[in-house]
Amino acid sequence: MESEAIQDELQSLELEINDVQGQISALIEHQDRLYERKSELKTLLKAVSASVTPVAPSCPDGSSAVENWSEPFEWDSRADDIRFNIFGISKYRANQREIVNVIMAGRDVLVIMAAGGGKSLCYQLPAILRGGTTLVVSPLLSLIQDQVMGLAALGISAYMLTSTSGKENEKFVYKALEKGEDDLKILYVTPEKVSKSKRFMSKLEKCHNAGRLSLISIDEAHCCSQWGHDFRPDYKNLSILKTQFPKVPMVALTATATQKVQNDLIEMLHIPKCVKFVSSVNRPNLFYSVREKSLVGKAVVDEIAEFIRESYSNNESGIVYCFSRKECEQIAGELRERGISADYYHAEMDVNMREKVHMRWSKNKLQVIVGTVAFGMGINKPDVRFVIHHSLSKSMETYYQESGRAGRDGLPSECVLFFRSGDVPRQSSMVFYEYSGLQNLYDIVRYCQSKTKCRGSAFFRHFGEPSQDCNGMCDNCALSSEVKEVDVSDLAKLVVSMVQEMQAKDQRVTMLQLGDKLRTKHKDLSAELKREEIEHLVIKLIVDSVLKEEFQHTPYSTNAYVTTGPLANQLLQGRKTIKTETSSRQINKKSKRSSSFSGLESKLDELRKEISAAHGSMLPHTVLSTQQIGLISSQKPDSLQELESIIGKLKTDKYGDKILEVMRHDTVSEQLVEDGTKEDTCKSRSSKRAKTQKNVVLLESSEEE
Ligand SMILES: Nc1ncnc2c1ncn2[C@@H]1O[C@H](COP(=O)(O)OP(=O)(O)OP(=O)(O)O)[C@@H](O)[C@H]1O
Ligand SMILES: [Mg+2]
Fold first, then answer.
1. pLDDT, position 679
2. 74-88, 119-133, 432-446 — which is least confidently predicted?
3. Ligand sitting nearest the alpha carbon of 402
4. Least CB-packed of 70, 223, 357, 632 within 10 Å?
5. Is the CB of residue 123 below 6 angstroms from any atom belonging to ligand 1?
6. Which reaction(s) are listed as its catalytic activity (predicted)?
């Protein structure tokens, strides 16, 4: 054999080996994903069969008992009284009553409940019911402040020990813990207090020894696990609480926890025998949609401003999430130029400034916060009506959390994501070094690119839950449109060949350059294909492993380049087809998915703002929740007694007179309007009559003539 022929064969073998290796790694990746899904499904199956067959745990005397936490308990009527007359909550939501019962029975509990599901009530109610002091560990100062303020407004003796609480406060709390003389129902601390302050732990021990430590609650418990998204090293040391106080019931609560995080939590907190309550991740009041994001920045802001003006003209609160600090500032400014009351929030701002913006928004004096992901865990506002993502999140999990800040009060709210393929490389160059970072990003890209799959089912799948119908609460299910699948394999081959050619010449290419080169080389295409269509295809090829992203650091940034992926040859050899979806969907810009205030509701909203302003630190929703406003205005109570049956005793005692005054005023003005209308109608009738008579007269006179 001649050397040239040998070289040729060698080269083609080399290529074939590369191809096979590519396929092997793609298959291995696929296999990993299948294994992961298999383990999720197995866990799911266990959970499903466990919920069908009641667990029979061992009792201390060795007998076994079926746990039914929904049955009547001796504390039921006292619990109902506190729920309604102190918290003003007319009925329990799913799992709340059962969780209260488990805690009252002295057992440990792990609660996984979606954002806004009502986790706080699950430990605050037993805290009052059990007597003694409840310790709550919470990760953020702002969360703690909100909770303490809210409880104080309900007349519950709640305190906090944090780096900012003053000496006097600390003295009071320590004395209350040690001597039990003063009333201290709920004490909030940050995890640092538990892990770093020996003084605090010794006082807590005294409280416990005197039999006054009644419950320990770990809020945002996912922070304990390094697999949880907000991992906090100090949370790791919380295991000391169960070791020191083994008989005190512990409740750990979080909004989202995968199976891995759940197991980790149980182990880290030393609560192996805990009763677990896992609620669905479903948020039935949230409407999810994805909109195509224009290449022109101003057009995107126009669309956002129009959306807010059209659907939320009553100053309803919202959040716009942006990718970068600079973008936040710019978009907040541009929204203001368009008449929207907006301000920005990001990590590089001065703490006081940030706090001020947050406070204005919490008090409904600012409609929209334009924030980076730094505007996160501390948000406790229940009446956020819309969350808009100006760029995509880095994973389904973060998107679920960020968008989930909408509608925590259970009322209809909207989550809109503006997607364009050009945003993907910006995110990928930030997440590529994280564990499964790219895989997680590509999952949310698939979510955005799909024009047919239910958005809700994407969340169920991600969190390993059986699928449920979203009841028309996403664009793909609700908005009728004609979606066509188009085979774009030929165009994809052109793209991949071009990448291959450049690679052969040792040239790197970004997605943007690739689009430009393709349009220059194939002039015939450039007339037909827009830049965003090519970008859409390139991203699809990346997500499908036909192309691949590679990263290179410069002193100022990390650049994402496009190279061939493991399935490139399959496509080039015609063993793989690529299809994209096109849709003729028209966004119904005027569609309104959340209710807005009626006349009376607006007046009650004004009233709660006035009371909140007069009390300084109290937030409007603590005075009256939006739900309570809705109930009052639909049931129109006209006595304190009737009002009490709607919002409970405490709020009626505090604000009842003012509420009834607003109601009376409203009835009077309604009456006036009605009378006015009647009068108008009469007037117009009589003037019509006069006109008619005039005509008649004229006619008559003409007849007479
Ligand atoms: N049973 C109920 N009926 C009506 N409203 C309720 C009920 N339980 C709680 N809420 C209200 O729902 C809102 C959210 O409750 P909460 O703050 O406890 O949610 P969460 O589960 O802790 O959410 P997150 O994960 O975001 O912290 C609050 O305004 C609360 O008053
Ligand atoms: Mg909470």
1. 54
2. 432-446
3. 1
4. 70
5. no
6. ATP + H2O = ADP + phosphate + H(+); Couples ATP hydrolysis with the unwinding of duplex DNA by translocating in the 3'-5' direction
Structure token pair of residue 225: 């696990």
Query: Using an 8 Å Cβ cutoff, are 422 and 474 in contact?
Result: no
Task: Report the domain count for the chain.
Answer: 5
- Closest ligand by atom to 255 CA: 1
Q: Alpha-carbon distance 110 to 454, whole Å?
A: 30
Last residue of a domain, one of 478, 513, 528: 478
CA distance 495 to 373: 34
Q: How far is CA 529 from the centre of its chain?
A: 36
ipTM of the prediction: 0.99
Q: Is residue 587 part of a domain?
A: no
Atom of ligand 1 nearest to the CA of 379: 26
Q: Is 567 in the pocket of ligand 1 (CB under 6 A)?
A: no
111 alpha carbon – ligand 1 mean position (Å): 13
Instruction: Confirm whether 592 is domain-assigned.
Output: no
Residue 25 lies in a domain: yes
The verdict on 125 and 99 lying in the same domain is yes
Beta strand 250-254 with 317-321: parallel, antiparallel or unpaired? Answer: unpaired
For 65-91, what is each residue's pLDDT tens digit?
Answer: 447 899 999 999 999 999 999 999 999
Domain that holds residue 439: 286-478
> Are 407 and 490 within one domain?
no
Tens digit of each residue's pLDDT (9 = 90 or more) over 633-655: 889 998 999 999 999 999 999 99
Residues 266 and 306 in one domain: no
Q: Is 649 in the pocket of ligand 1 (CB under 6 A)?
A: no
Mean pLDDT of the chain: 86
